Amino acid sequence: MLADSDTRWKWGALTAARLRSDQPSLPLDGFLLRGRATPTPRQLTEVGVRADRLSEVTAVEFLRAMERSPEKYDVVVLALVGGAVQAVLHGLAHAWRGVTRRPVVVTGYVGVVYEKLTDGLLLRHGADVVLANSAYDADRFRAVYEGVGADAGSVTECALPFLGGAPYGTAHDPYTVVFAAQPSVPDTPADRTYLLERLVRHATAHPGREVLLKLRSKPGEHTTHIEETPYQKLAQRLALPPNLKLVYGNMGEVLDRTDLLVTVSSTAALEALHRRIPTALLTDLGVREALGNHHFTGSGCLLSWDRLDAGELPAPDAAWVARQGVAADGTYGQAFDRARARVDALLAADRPPIEPYYSTVTAPGYLPRILARHHLAPDGSPLPGAPAADREPSAVRQIVRRAARGAYRHGVQRVAPVIRRMGEL
């Protein structure tokens, strides 16, 4: 399994576990794609799924490992951003030329697909299995592929691999409200300050409740998206009431004590709905594509802080929930049956060469740029000067990499906002 961030590691590792649930003893080799969002040990531990072996690699290093031993693996899960998936697919097509018993390649999405649907899907085309987290997504995915004349046979309906936990029952003592923060939604300091202030107001107005701000990462860590204005930093400027706390950790464990989940558009909403926990998607900043909460139109869960403060609770629409793969009706145990069956069928036969829709014929002005970002030529071969995979990085190189990553994060979270404010003077 190859992943490039904490959330994609979570999705990829748990997807691999679901696909091998009937053979849990099969080993899992984890590869982390080196980059700005490479997860820290804490982030990996938080997921709760351990790899038998773990390596940090570049795309070329990963491809060389796959080329040397294509028979070593049965399934390769690509838990990457779309452009990286496309680059690795072309690299694997080059590495496995003439190999008929190559691994089955699986990819998909970490959560709600609310933006760049066509772009992201076409960048994933070429994988043997493109997982759709719901019936709604499966229909959309097939429509996109068929609409451009690409084979849609890879689209396979399943569900998010990290749903689970006990169904919600009676209220906890104290009653607990959780706001699930997102690193990039909303993205402006003013909007993020507004949401934090409303959370403070809710905690102040309900002193008998425990109010939790669930954060994705600690200062210095990065997630799938860049977080320029962390809530931790904003919270330092406010007087937080004693019943408002900042928490980290596994989302499932936080949901174990949640009576009301509030968010803008986090995938945590689907986790909560799966467990029948009252779940509110905020409308305070509008219902907009840029926020992702437009995806929840028709869910019955769109509410404002004013309505929540007054005691109103969301009432989820059962038909909408069922179409979104939430499986709150107890069918989640069978959600990955189709995916396992497709993988088994592919493993039982010779696999054809990997043929993504994007090629130097269909996208000659786009594809080479995507491949070049990962040091690959238009035919998927490594470019001259690409990092070698036959030696471990020296201690000095490892230190330099960590320092560079830290400098990048400091620049994003500290320097960039200052420069932006100066430009607005």
The counted number of beta strands is 13
Helix content: 25-40%
User: Rounded to an integer, what's the Rg over CA atoms?
Assistant: 22 Å
- Helix/strand-derived category reads alpha/beta
Number of helices: 15
Low-confidence stretches: 389-395, 397-401, 403-414, 416-422
Shape: globular
Instruction: Give the amount of beta strand, in percent.
Output: 5-15%
What kind of sheet is the major sheet?
7 strands, parallel
How do the strands of the widest beta sheet line up side by side? 3-2-1-4-5-6-7
- Oligomeric organization of the protein chains: single chain
Question: What is the mean predicted local confidence, pLDDT?
Answer: 89
CA-CA gap between termini: 47 Å
What is the string of helix and strand elements?
Answer: EHEHEHEHEHEHEEHEHEHEHEEHHHHH
